[in-house]
Design brief:
Elements lengths: L2 E5 L1 H5 L1 H6 L4 H10 L4 E5 L9 H10 L4 E6 L3 H9 L4 E4 L4 H4 L1 H13 L3 E6 L3 H9 L4 E5 L1 H4 L4 H20 L3 E5 L7 H5 L4 E6 L1 H10 L1 H12 L1
Parallel strand pairs: 1-2, 1-8, 2-3, 3-4, 4-5, 5-6, 6-7, 7-8
Helix pairs in contact: 3-4, 5-7, 12-13
Length: 228
């Protein structure tokens, strides 16, 4: 059974509309937690005046004991934010991450692990990238599955699913946990969770879209029933 992680990025982007409805990000996190999500994730770059480090702290605090993954680029000032917050996981997200940030990662990862944080990388489904994540002691990988979810061909979808399955099995054999993210919906999630090595399904925009019609609690519970 895969777990459901609610990515809050889409909710943050829709922040003005949600505030007009009387619901801020801490309120969303609270409702989602009570509705049964297994984890949260949120991207933070430290550059937005409309979402400050204090806002981030409030969102993380609202999650209580539910796993929270902070998604950041490997930058020193963001490392300090991650160390200061009670997040259980740090997911590094950047283009050419192993080439452009190798020295930073070698410094950052031991500090984060010493602080009890799990380390994850957002990766395209490429075995070469998986090997690099393994070599620098990743605990988890978050696989970009848009090549699957955005594929309009049935044959193409099957091939993409097989690629994700190969990556997932290889990661599992090497002691690395696997999450999938990218265009996942109520309609296309089942083939992904049929891959036994997939532990975590990350969704955001599809939950936000459905919540407009049925409410956040029902949207989450409907998706949870799919992956249970």
């Amino acid at each position: 059974m895969a777990q459901m992680e609610l990515n809050l990025d889409a909710f943050l982007e829709a922040g003005q509309q949600l505030k007009l409805a009387g619901l801020g990000l801490p309120g969303i996190v609270t409702i989602a937690g009570l509705s049964g999500v297994d984890g949260f994730s949120l991207s933070y770059d430290g550059r937005s005046q409309s979402f400050t480090e204090k806002d981030l702290e409030l969102a993380v605090a609202s999650a209580m004991d539910i796993r929270f993954a902070l998604r950041i680029a490997p930058r020193a000032e963001l490392l300090q934010v991650a160390l200061n917050l009670p997040v259980k996981q740090v997911t590094f997200v950047a283009d050419n991450i192993f080439e452009d940030y190798s020295a930073d990662l070698e410094t950052f990862i031991p500090q984060l692990k010493d602080a009890g944080k799990m380390i994850s990388f957002y990766l395209d489904p490429d075995i070469t990238l998986l090997k690099k994540a393994y070599r620098i002691s990743a605990d988890l990988v978050e696989l970009n599955v848009r090549h699957y979810s955005g594929n309009s061909s049935a044959t193409g979808q099957v091939e993409a699913q097989e690629q994700v399955a190969l990556m997932s099995r290889t990661a599992e054999k090497n002691g690395i946990g696997v999450a999938v993210n990218g265009g996942i919906t109520y309609q296309n999630v089942l083939p992904l969770i049929s891959i036994e090595a997939v532990e975590n399904v990350i969704v955001g925009r599809t939950i936000l879209g459905r919540s407009v019609f049925v409410g956040l609690e029902a949207a989450i519970r409907d998706f949870k029933s799919q992956v249970a």
